[in-house]
Fold this protein.
Amino acid sequence: MAKEVSHDMKNSSGLRVEGLSKVWGRKPVFTDISFSQPAGTIVGVEGDNGAGKSTLLKILASVLSRDAGQVFFRDVSLDNLSRWRSLIGYVPQELALDERLTVKENIRFWAALRGSGKKEIRQILQAAAEDQLVADFLDKPIRESSGGMARRASLVIGLLTSPQLLLLDEPFSGADQDSRMQMLRRLDSLRSQGRTILIASHEHWILEEICDNILRLQQGKIVA
């Protein structure tokens, strides 16, 4: 049975968003939104263009500041940045991959950037060579890879630190059906391991396929 996402704040092991607000200039993006997501669930966030899906994920990823509200995961506050960032993985809508490098070189670069030593990087690359998401094209430059390959590589990079909270912004954009299904299977496996996953997407059918619940952002509010 799916674990329901609610507006109550009793969930201490998962994600809690309390009274979150963000304003661009004088225009509110969203105002006083609150929701609670239990650990080990996948929740989708949908809404029209400009509804604030990406803004919400960027705030949760500590990439963007908020104007009001509190955010907690496993009772760790977003304000505790070092601890917070050790718990999360973020895959932005814009591909953070160097097109000149191969998939393997991109993985190595991001692993080093996140503090992995030489021995750990070797282990990471060994695991990537056995990972069905990327094993077949590790030596292919990103500029020669398909959109689906690039999205799969981005997901693998987002999982480098084994995050307990995974934030995915339009992770299926530009991916073919086979890549989408492979990614969905991986996300389902991560959920079964107790990971908490938040997906922003405009593709409703994909969210219906994988999510325990879907939140809709509309006119600055969350609508069930």
About this structure: The longest strand covers residues 27-37.
